């Protein structure tokens, strides 16, 4: 069912438009090669992916700093696969990862198609918890920055989704209000509940078929946004 009265559409970036998992895997493949690390990539990623999500949750909840996230997620993943590695090399890998991550630009299926469709009808915006120095590079390298009127990231605001402050900041930047806006994102806690807590409608990009409130609007392919917008 089409949603009436919407003028502004807010997107999350990582895991919603920008295919973080695919680009991250390619980045690790690259930096392991650069640093002559003979590590089975699949084994490493099987540990790293859930560990990374755990630390991002802590970061989102203001329980750890960015520097701790970047070091600990790698250190814990190497420990989990039984690979002994020097702390200085972890620091270098962390820097290499950030440097090379934005050189890969895979997007989710139908990203350009839905952005073309929506940008002709609505003002489009980004709200992201990602790091300022890499988010703009991701959008530029994947050629999607031109679609968005505003980009709000957690570092410029000082808080992270689902904190209502970042949503209200983004709305102010966009010169709009909650009744005319909708949030699209993959994180039920950060994107969907964060938006709903300030009265903004939301659509859950649910590619993993999570068990959530049955009343939540959900899609598993971006093109399905046409059903709502």
TrEMBL record:
SUPFAM superfamilies: HAD-like (SSF56784). It comes from the Bacteria. It holds the Pfam family HAD_2. InterPro entries: HAD-like_sf, HAD-SF_hydro_IA, HAD-SF_hydro_IA_YjjG/PynA, HAD_2, HAD_sf, PGP-like_dom2, Pyrimidine_5'-ntase_YjjG. This is YjjG family noncanonical pyrimidine nucleotidase. It comes from Flaviramulus multivorans.
């Amino acid at each position: 069912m089409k949603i009436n009265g919407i003028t502004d559409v807010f997107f999350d970036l990582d895991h919603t438009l920008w295919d973080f998992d695919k680009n991250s895997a390619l980045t690790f493949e690259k930096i392991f090669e650069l640093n002559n690390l003979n590590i089975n990539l699949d084994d490493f990623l099987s540990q790293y992916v859930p560990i990374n999500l755990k630390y991002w949750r802590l970061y989102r909840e203001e329980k750890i700093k960015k520097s701790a996230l970047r070091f600990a997620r790698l250190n814990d993943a190497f420990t989990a696969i039984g690979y002994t590695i020097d702390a200085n090399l972890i620091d270098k890998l962390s820097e290499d990862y950030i440097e090379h991550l934005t050189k890969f630009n895979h997007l989710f299926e139908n990203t350009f198609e839905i952005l073309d469709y929506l940008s002709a009808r609505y003002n489009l915006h980004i709200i992201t918890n990602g790091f300022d120095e890499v988010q703009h590079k991701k959008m530029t390298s994947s050629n999607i920055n031109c679609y968005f009127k505003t980009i709000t990231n957690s570092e410029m605001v000082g808080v992270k989704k689902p904190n209502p402050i970042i949503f209200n900041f983004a709305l102010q930047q966009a010169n709009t209000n909650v009744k005319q806006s909708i949030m699209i994102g993959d994180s039920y806690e950060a994107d969907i509940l964060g938006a709903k807590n300030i009265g903004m409608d939301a659509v859950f990009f649910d590619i993993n078929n999570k068990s959530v409130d049955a009343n939540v609007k959900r899609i598993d392919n971006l093109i399905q946004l046409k059903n709502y917008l």
